[in-house]
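Each record in this resource describes a single protein on a pair of labelled lines. With that in mind, the following record should read easily:

===
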Amino acid sequence: MSAQAIRNYEDAGILPPAQRSEAGYRRYTPLHAQAVRTFVSLRRGHGHQQALEIMRAINRADTEHAYRLIDATHAALLAERGTRSQVAGALGSLSTAKLLAIHGPPLSVGELARRLGIHPATLRAWEREGIVRPERDKATGYRQYGSECVRDAEIARQLRRGGYPLRQIAQFVESAREAGGAAALSGFLSSWQDRLNTRSRDLLTGAAHLDAYLSALSQLSEHC
């Protein structure tokens, strides 16, 4: 990295303050090198801003705050793992043969409700949860349910029969949209799992560098 990047890191509080030579030049030590390695490693798992706050807390000797930031990242990752497991469980509950897209003009709320065997008010409740996103007829303002809405409503109907709450169904449908449909969701879930595992490994690596940095700070304190 550039010399300016190192100066920026020091100004941001990522590095401990460097001593100056008589000519005013900064003098860096192996401690500063370890601080850089620690920040770069933490950034992979925690993200830039969180890694920055962790290093700032460590350098001002506020390890309690640093540990809380680290714990928060691990808690968020655990919650994301739970969400993925819920989505995967919902996928196993679906009958994909019934998820084929419709052909032809969009359906009205009444037409779709009859197709699914539910009350129109149920569709409006699903809309409030973000499960279905109907468009509106520009002339009348009435809801119009295209093929994707019909697919999402069919997913919701099947999952509701399986006892899933609306919140989990909304998570599943959002994941299906991101994946490009329920049929593509299996590959999406596999990729999601890979990303979670990679991030977990990055967090472990970052923790190892941080432990080395804390040990170096401790040794420096003992000699001062």
